[in-house]
Structure formats: C-alpha cells, structure tokens
C-alpha cells in the first residue's frame, strides 16, 4: 500500500470536504483516515489516503488538488507518507 497525506487549510465554506472527496473517489484514491476541525471560521483537515490504485500519475493529482483548493479558496497540499514523515521527524 502506498500512502499519502493530504492537508486542507483555509476559511470554512460549504462543500470543501465534498469537493476534495469527490475528486479522490473519481481517481480511485481510498481515504483511510480523516480528521477535520473548524476553529472560529478556519477549516483544517488532514487525510491519510491509499494511492496504490490511483488512476493517473501522482504528480498530476498533486497539481489537481492544488488547483481545486485555489478554486474553492483553501490550500490543499499532498505529500507521500515517507516524505511527510521525514519532514515531521523530531
């Protein structure tokens, strides 16, 4: 299984989760775990996803998610699990 970490941060608006999850489902990316919180008007979500059966290329998904985030006014970042772990290692 190949995992990636997706983070979504920005002003809360209707449909953020729906738009991100719809994109993932359409591209055969399975959500393994999801956590979200809203603090005042700010939305924060972290997802762990399985990209082993993903349609298309990983780099295209990263670009697509970033553009999707721009379209809905949030920042969407995607990193492979091993990169994320190395960046957040103490």
Question: Please, could you describe this protein's structure?
Answer:
This protein starts with a strand and ends with a helix. The radius of gyration is 13 Å and the shape is globular. With 90 residues, it is of the alpha+beta class. The model has no long low-confidence stretch (mean pLDDT 92). It is 37% helix and 39% strand. It has a four-stranded antiparallel beta sheet. The protein contains three helices and four strands, in the order βαββαβα.
User: Order of strands side by side in the largest beta sheet?
Assistant: 2-3-1-4
Low-pLDDT residue intervals, each spanning 5 or more residues: none
Note the main sheet: 4 strands, antiparallel
What is the number of E strands?
A: 4
Q: Note the beta-strand portion.
A: 35-45%
Mean pLDDT: 92
Shape: globular
Quickly give the structural class.
alpha+beta
Topology pattern, helix = H, strand = E: EHEEHEH
The separation of the N and C termini measures 25 Å
Q: Classify the helix fraction into a percent range.
A: 25-40%
Task: Please tally the helical runs, counting DSSP H or I stretches of 4 or more residues.
Answer: 3
Radius of gyration: 13 Å
């Amino acid at each position: 299984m190949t995992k990636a970490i997706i983070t979504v941060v920005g002003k809360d608006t209707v449909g953020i989760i729906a738009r991100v999850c719809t994109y993932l489902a359409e591209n055969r990316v399975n959500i393994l775990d999801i956590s979200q919180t809203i603090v005042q008007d700010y939305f924060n979500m972290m997802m762990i996803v399985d990209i082993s059966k993903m349609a298309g290329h990983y780099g295209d998904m990263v670009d697509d998610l970033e553009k999707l985030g721009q379209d809905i006014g949030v920042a969407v970042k995607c990193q492979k699990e091993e990169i994320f772990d190395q960046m957040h290692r103490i």
